[in-house]
Amino acid sequence: MTFDLKTLGWTQHFTGQLSPEEFETLTPVRIAEVRRRSLIALDAAQTRHELALTGEFIASDFAVGDFALSDGERIIRLLDRRSLISRKAAGIASETQLIAANIDTLFITTSCNHDFNEARLERYLAIAIEAGIDPVIVITKADKPEEMSADAYTDRARALYRDLQVVTLNAKDPADIARLAPWCGTGQTLALVGSSGVGKSTVARGLTGEDLAVADIREDDAKGRHTTTARSMYRMHDGGWLIDTPGMRELALHDAADGIDALFSDITDLAATCKFSDCQHETEPGCAIRAAIDSGDLDEDRLDRWRKLKDEDARNSETVAEARQRGRKFSKMAKSVMKAKRARRGE
Ligand SMILES: Nc1nc2c(ncn2[C@@H]2O[C@H](COP(=O)(O)OP(=O)(O)OP(=O)(O)O)[C@@H](O)[C@H]2O)c(=O)[nH]1
Ligand SMILES: [Zn+2]
């Protein structure tokens, strides 16, 4: 085990999962690309290897950023993740699609203009907390704030969550980009989310020196055909890794009840002291939340956003369950049709 594994983002969390035998015989790698039938993995020397997916593994088991053990040709074992971002898949068969693994910090990006929206920031905060990732709010366009001052935007973002880190900057200014260094050093893994046009690509270019959107790799596959695959892991100037997968930019909320509870712990704590355990915080007597609003301790807008976020999460999580239900019904029906056919054929 060489020291350079640290550079890949390897920590004690992963070392602790290895048996002495695995330690001796297998190579730790980090997944940089997930293809249909193979994975591109980086070893401690940051050499790219194409590893075959064989045996029990299929591509959808893996996310960019995963750590695994390889025998040099194949993946032997996937290691437990420190954090995971997934999204709901459209199809029935696989309910969630893995987007990225083992990210330390999520830069939730917005700008000093109409894009700044507390509800949207809270949605990303809930996603980060649920996934086990430290959120940092990055507010771009501090050099040309609209509607209010850059400091006012910073204050509004800070108020969203206790001890929340907020960096307000001009993403085009290298001196400002340098203020992001605490999250970009050797061993650290970062991802960016935010709406279109807020400056994600500009921040990414500042951190890596590369244009992410155009950094696709063209190469020839085994049969000599040209293929274009999107690169997803980029080395940052400060030594860390930036993960940018296509799914990262379209993250939606799902199955994030714990993340929402943590983000709004003041409200959840209050709700626990309401007189009725099923209190809807509308007109019930003994409602601690109504009392906090009346006394000015709780902001009505915040309560409203909490409700909407919970509804959105419930709706999106429910759909997954329903899809599963539909899938089961469909496979039952398919089975009974097959059975009937076999019976007709006299099998
Ligand atoms: N003045 C100023 N312009 C910025 C700043 N950050 C980004 N921009 C500009 O805003 C525009 C959009 O920035 P991008 O980096 O492309 O935004 P994006 O979030 O990557 O957008 P998508 O690729 O659509 O997701 C570009 O013209 C940038 O030059 C900033 O801090 N200050
Ligand atoms: Zn109540």
UniProtKB/TrEMBL annotation:
Its main location: cytoplasm. Residues 326-347 have a biased composition (Basic residues). The keyword Ion transport does not apply. Its cofactor is Zn(2+). Binds 1 zinc ion per subunit. Zn(2+) binds at C274, C279, H281, C287. The keyword Cell wall biogenesis/degradation does not apply. Residues 313-347 are annotated as: Disordered. Keywords: Cytoplasm, GTP-binding, Hydrolase, Metal-binding, Nucleotide-binding, Ribosome biogenesis, RNA-binding, rRNA-binding, Zinc. Residues 101-249 form the EngC GTPase domain. GTP binds at T140, K141, A142, D143, G194, S195, S196, G197, V198, G199, K200, S201, T202. Pfam families: RsgA_GTPase (PF03193). InterPro entries: G_CP_dom, P-loop_NTPase, Ribosome_biogen_GTPase_RsgA, RsgA_GTPase_dom. One of its GO terms (cellular component) is cytoplasm. Its EC number is 3.6.1.-. One of several proteins that assist in the late maturation steps of the functional core of the 30S ribosomal subunit. Helps release RbfA from mature subunits. May play a role in the assembly of ribosomal proteins into the subunit. Circularly permuted GTPase that catalyzes slow GTP hydrolysis, GTPase activity is stimulated by the 30S ribosomal subunit. PANTHER family: SMALL RIBOSOMAL SUBUNIT BIOGENESIS GTPASE RSGA (PTHR32120). Monomer. Associates with 30S ribosomal subunit, binds 16S rRNA. This is Small ribosomal subunit biogenesis GTPase RsgA. It comes from Thalassobius vesicularis. The lineage of its organism: Bacteria, Pseudomonadati, Pseudomonadota, Alphaproteobacteria, Rhodobacterales.
